Amino acid sequence: MINVNGNSPLTQLPNVLTLCNITMGLSSIITASFGNFTLAGLLIIIGAFFDRLDGHVARKYRMTSEMGKQLDSLADVITFGLAPAITMFLLSFTDTVVLGFIITVIFVTCGAYRLARFNILNYSDVFIGMPITVAGFLLALLTLFQTQMPIHPYWTAISMLFLSYLMVCKREIKKV
């Protein structure tokens, strides 16, 4: 076990990992805006790695903080809400911009709502609704699939609406 006192720079390691997650999300958006959707999807998946790692490090070495919790939620909205939704908008909805705009807004707002609800509720063994990290990760996988085999925008819209619903529904999902 690492001995970390309150003044050690190591206490910021979970926050640094969270900032790496944010960097992956922002890089994904920028990369998608240049048309490299495969890399954009991969950056979201790398962001998921940092998201998993920051929480693990914070809990294992007892370096959790209110700042870290807030920063993690911000990272989740960027990397698993904005990044996959904007990437999918740019990839799939070029001919149906209004539909794409509406679906993108719904996905991001449902994800933000889901995070806010998670932050105020205290369930230790279940999630209420699908975590935004899972929904964003699945949308990133759909992006990677779609770069190889295009899907009609209406099917993409239905997929995004379904993921949006799963984020805000009150269904209990056991934590693993």
From TrEMBL:
One annotated GO molecular function: CDP-diacylglycerol-serine O-phosphatidyltransferase activity
Annotated keywords: Lipid biosynthesis, Lipid metabolism, Membrane, Phospholipid biosynthesis, Phospholipid metabolism, Transferase, Transmembrane, Transmembrane helix
Ribonucleoprotein is among the record's keywords: no
Location in or out of the cell: Endomembrane system
UniProt record, GO biological process: phospholipid biosynthetic process
Classification via Pfam families: CDP-OH_P_transf
Broad class of the protein's primary localization: membrane
Hydrolase among keywords: no
Superkingdom, natural source: Bacteria
Catalytic activity line of the entry: a CDP-1,2-diacyl-sn-glycerol + L-serine = a 1,2-diacyl-sn-glycero-3-phospho-L-serine + CMP + H(+)
Top EC group: transferase
TM segment ranges: 29-50, 71-91, 97-115, 127-145, 151-168
Protein's name according to its UniProt entry: CDP-diacylglycerol--serine O-phosphatidyltransferase
Organism, scientific name: Desulfoscipio gibsoniae DSM 7213
